[in-house]
């Protein structure tokens, strides 16, 4: 099993296949993929919001420090509104879901304690996004609701 399969399985086990947590993880992945500097860009957003210790903990091999929904709102700013719309949630609800999934997601995207290069990250994010939003082969419907 590849680390992407492992991550997809763990996210679905933790948040449930088709659950809002899956949507939050999928949208967080798309946001990370769209940043010029990938995970480094995301970490920079949290650094600028005064959350350097939290963001660095997700990348490092140590314990992941949590963030609150309010901290996610501060760090992501207007980007959060776009994510909330794609998740069919209010900004507050999207911030809460992202606060729940972001530490684990970033941690698992950096298994060696180092953010991957942007090209590698985009490839991995694309593959993981497909796993999180795959169609149920028996029913032909997206399992994540995206």
**What's the helix-strand series?**
HHHHHHHHEE
CATH superfamily of the domain at 37-133: YidB-like
CATH class of the domain at 37-133: Mainly Alpha
With helices defined by DSSP (H or I, 4 residues minimum), what is the helix count?
8
What's the number of extended β-strand segments?
A: 2
Helix content: 55-70%
Largest sheet: 2 strands, antiparallel
CATH topology type of the domain at 37-133: Arc Repressor Mutant, subunit A
Euclidean distance between termini CA atoms: 25 Å
Proper CATH architecture of the domain at 37-133: Orthogonal Bundle
Beta-strand percent range: under 5%
Task: Give the strand order, joined by hyphens, for the main sheet.
Answer: 1-2
The computed structural class is mainly alpha
Determine the mean pLDDT.
75
**Global morphology:** globular
Uncertain segments are 135-146
What is the gyration radius calculated from CA atoms? Answer: 14 Å
Chain oligomer state: single chain
């Amino acid at each position: 099993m590849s680390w992407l399969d492992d991550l997809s399985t763990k996210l679905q086990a933790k948040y449930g296949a088709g659950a809002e947590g899956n949507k939050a993880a999928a949208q967080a992945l798309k946001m990370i993929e769209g940043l010029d500097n990938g995970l480094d860009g995301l970490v920079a957003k949290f650094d600028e919001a005064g959350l350097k210790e939290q963001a660095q903990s997700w990348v490092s091999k140590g314990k992941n420090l949590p963030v609150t929904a309010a901290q996610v709102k501060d760090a992501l700013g207007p980007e959060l509104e776009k994510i909330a719309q794609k998740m069919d949630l209010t900004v507050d609800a999207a911030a809460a879901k992202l606060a729940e999934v972001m530490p684990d997601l970033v941690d698992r995207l950096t298994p060696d304690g180092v953010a991957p290069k942007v090209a590698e990250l985009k490839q991995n994010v694309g593959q993981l996004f497909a796993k999180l939003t795959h169609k149920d082969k028996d029913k032909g419907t997206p399992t994540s609701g995206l």
